[in-house]
Amino acid sequence: VAFLSFALIDPLLVDETGDLLWVRGLVVLATLAVLAVSYLPSAARRPVVLAVAAGWVIGGGVIAVTLMTGGGESRYHEALLLTFMGLSLIIPWRPTTAALACGALSLAYGLVMWWAGATGPVGTWITNNGILWVAVAISVTATIWSRRLRTTEFIGRYQLALAHEELKELDRAKSRFFANISHELRTPLTLTLAPVEALLEDGGDPLSEGQRENLELAQRNALRLLRELDDLLELSRVENSSLRLRIEPVDLSELVVGLVEEVRPLAARKGIDVSHAEVLEASMSILADRLWVEKILLNVVSNAIKFSDVGQPVELSLAREEDRVAIEVADRGIGIPADQLEEIFQRFHQVVPSGTRRQGGTGIGLALALEVTRLHGGRIEARQRPGGGSVFRIELPERPPEGTPVERRLQRQSSDQERRADTEGLLEWQQALRHREDYRLLDLQDATERRLVKRNAGPGERRSVLVVDD
Ligand code: ADP
């Protein structure tokens, strides 16, 4: 395009432009031919050769035009400088190739003018050639620099990609580790729970009060551990996309009312009144995984109780909005700082310094809730409640979107570990356990727990205990 557009300047410099136009036309055609060749599959592998060919076609054209317009005295040779610059800027070639390609053109200029006897006055001749060779040197230097820059950039990108891959592998290894360890710990744990339960339920051989308390303590703590392991396991399932939903019709207003009834007595232990808004539409049925919806709701409600002080109420409400249903859980507890309203949904994130550590927990519950509501095609978010406290909002669509991973019966036992557990007869027991109140409501029990263990101290065993708390 540049070569052709210089035809506009030709009339300013020479009287007769007809022949020049011919040369320009030929050069453009030859360049287009090189361009066409570059589309051949075999030629595409040699881009530098093609680029050098195009450069020589243009450079040759410049030399021809220079010769036709006065040789050494013509200013047209300056177009060679532009050619060198353009080539070095555009082509990622080696310094030696740059030296050869540009040097050959510079040499050709000198030889052609000399051969045609059109070198002009000596001073001009020397200056013209000198400037051309300096331009060759500059092109080569620029090539060296840009190559270095490209190499550094390439190495940087490569190392970044490598680090990224390593990080991903580390993350995968961590998920695998969590999954393996949860599986491995689950089995002995359930095997510990089973005999403890048998002892507690053995009607024939009554336990003393002390024995019962100790066994119940062991059972509670084993269940708590099982719960943490389950959450870790579910989280790694979400991470490697193997979590499947078991979709069924769920009446959310029934679920909320039932849940409130169920948690009320537990919350009362902390003097917290859990209630639901007066008007709950008759039916708020959606298609969802009942167990997961309940688990998410239980987590949010138990958080509300956990982070509220004695006597502060917790209120649930439910509303249908177009094709979605929104459940809100509002508390008047310690609240969540505005800058952490989103972060609390990240894995293991706990608000600091709200004293969360004092409250216990692992920071998994909300991360799981977020993933599973997303899997349902819904969303969950937290906001600050005017006047203190927080409001959690869970939105679920009437039905999960197309393509949601749904559980089929056979997939249930797909994993090796699970099959192994099943052969030991544990799987059924483990699944039954999940539905039981003392397991489902464990978070709530923890949230309302006063962390007080009764002991039967005999009359002579009394001790004074001094507790210093910050
Ligand atoms: P966990 O309760 O096990 O720490 P979660 O994922 O359920 O894990 O919660 C993450 C964090 O979000 C909590 O540790 C707490 O800091 C904050 N949080 C959650 N719910 C509330 C709430 N209702 N009020 C105040 N802070 C909350």
3D structure, described in words:
By secondary structure, this protein is an alpha+beta fold. Helix content is 58%, strand content 9%. It has helices at residues 2-5, 10-13, 18-37, 47-68, 78-90, 95-115, 122-201, 209-239, 252-268, 290-306, 356-359, 365-375, 416-423, 426-435, 437-440, 442-448, and strands spanning 247-251, 274-276, 285-289, 314-321, 324-331, 379-384, 390-397. The strands form 2 sheets. Strands 2-4-5-7-6 form a 5-stranded mixed sheet, covered by helices on one side. Strands 1-3 form a two-stranded antiparallel sheet. β4 and β5 form a beta hairpin. α8 (209-239) crosses α12. The protein starts with a helix and ends in a 22-residue tail after the last helix. The model is unreliable at 410-414 (pLDDT under 50). Bound molecules: adenosine-5'-diphosphate.
Total count of strands: 7
The proportion of residues forming helix, as a percent range, comes to 55-70%
Q: What percent strand?
A: 5-15%
Radius of gyration: 40 Å
Overall pLDDT confidence: 86
Give me the strand/helix succession: HHHHHHHHEHEEHEEHHEEHHHH
Key traits:
alpha+beta, binds adenosine-5'-diphosphate
